[in-house]
Amino acid sequence: MNRNKDYWKAFAENAMTRTRSIATVEAMELHGVAKAEIVAIMDDRTSPICQELHGRIIEVPKMISVKNQLLQLTTDGRSSDEVKSEIQSIVPFLKDADVQAMGALSSAELQEAFPSVGLPPYHWKCRTKIISWIDDFALEGEVDLDKPIDKNFAIKDLSEQEILNKLEGIRHDKYPNYSDKDWESDFGKHGMKDFGIDNRQDFVQKARDIYKNPDHIRCQTFKGQLQFTFYSETHQGYVVADTNGVIRGCYGHSKDAAISKALAGTNTKYYDIKGVQ
Description:
The protein has helices at residues 5-31, 48-53, 60-71, 80-90, 98-102, 107-113, 160-170, 180-195, 200-212, 258-265; strands spanning 35-39, 57-59, 129-132, 142-143, 216-222, 225-232, 237-242, 247-252, 271-274. The protein is an alpha+beta fold and 277 residues long. α1 (5-31) packs across α3 (60-71).
C-alpha cells in the first residue's frame, strides 16, 4: 500500500482520537456518569457534521454499549478486511449528507439512528471530543421553547441546554469572522445606509461590537440550521451568526426605539434567550 506521510499522520491522529474516546467512556462508566456532551473545536475548519453535533447531550449507557462492541472484536482467524469491515459497521464515519437528517432529530433519536456519535472521530481528521456532562457547570440561561413560533423558524431537535451549549461555544470568540460572501452583500446594502460606514474594516468591527455586546439574544432556524441573533441598542444594530461563530449578517437601525420594534416584529419567528451573563 503506497501512502504518503500525511496519510499516516492523519491515520495516527484518528487512531488516537478513537482511543481517547474509548478511554473517556470507560472513565465515565467507572464513575457513574450518566450523560456526556459533544464538544467540537469551532473555527473555519469545523465540518458541517461536527458543527451540527457540537453541544449535543447524549446518554452514556448507549456509548458504553458501542464501546464494548469495539473492545470485544477479535482478529483470530480473520482477515484484516473482515476486521476493518466490522469496525466500520460499529463506528462508521458520518457523512455531510447525514447532517440534514441529524438536524431533524432530538438527541435521543440521533443516538438511536447514529450510535457512533458517542465515539468520535466522526470523519477523517476529526478534532471533536466527548466530555462528562455536569449540570453545575452548564451555561445558565433560559430559552422559551414553549413559545408558538412560525413553523419555518421553529427549533424541533434541540433541548434548551443544547441550544445554550452551542451559544457558549461561540460567545467568547474575540474576533468572530464575517462570511466573505455575506459581507460583500451586507456592506453594499447596509454599510453607508445603516451605519454611515464606507470601509470594510470599520463595518466588520461594528458587527463584532454588536456580537460581543448584545442587550438581547434570540435564536431561530434558517434553512434548517440554528442561528443566533444579537441585538445591541448601544450600537443601534443587530447581527446574525451561525453555530460556528461566523457572522452572516449585520443590520443597523438608527431611529429611536428601532431595536425594540425589530424585536417586536420578529416575536413570532425567534425564541428569546434570557439570563445569559
